[in-house]
Amino acid sequence: MLSVLIETRNDEEGLARTLASLIGGAVEGVVREVIVCDTGSTDQTHRVAEHAGCQYVTGGVVAGIHQAKGDWLLLLEPGARMVEGWIDEVVAHTARQTMAARFSRTRASRTPFLARVFSGNRALADGLLISKRQAAAAAKSAGSAEAIARGLATKRLDAEIWMAPAKQERRSST
After folding, report:
1. Which of 1, 48, 127, 155 is the most buried (most CB within 10 A)?
2. What are the pLDDT digits (tens) for 6-49?
3. 4: closest CA among 58, 79, 55, 59?
């Protein structure tokens, strides 16, 4: 039913955290496959994907969209973590909606107003649930998952997500 696509580059630790939060969806039969869409990693990202049983593609999210088998795609940043309860929300949304959706941020990961105003907005920070048809159409003019998510009209889901740390924060912690 649902294909999860994670576009990554040199973020094996973040990828592992995200994959761990998807286990419930796989057990419930909601997550059909996870595709790690690599954009040139030189670390052990491919091994993390392999050990977790994910498909691993190079060429970014566009290659992953073409390979995905699900009618709906869940695009996530490496390091983002799904919060308990997300499965029921996704199932309900995909059964009745055709428009894309984003998750609600957990209270602890919400960015203060002024920080949002003065920092760059990451379009994938809240994840993106999108039909494969809509993603494939958007991918024709967008080269990355972030570009697909940017400027897209979406519905807000009640399910929560822990945002991935900003890339600068991830780099400085390693």
Report:
1. 127
2. 999 999 999 999 999 999 999 999 999 999 999 999 999 999 99
3. 55
Find the helix or strand (DSSP H, E) in which 94 lies.
helix 86-96
Distance CA 145, CA 143 (A): 7
| The CA-based dihedral angle spanning residues 166, 112, 146, 82, taken in that order and rounded to the nearest 10 degrees | 80
Question: How far is Cα 171 from Cα 11, in angstroms, rounded to an integer?
Answer: 9
Give the integer Cα–Cα distance in Å for 122 and 136: 21
pTM: 0.88
Q: pLDDT-derived band of residue 118, with 50, 70 and 90 as boundaries? A: low
Residue 30: left (phi > 0), alpha (psi -120 to 50), or beta? alpha
Amino acid at position 141, single letter: S
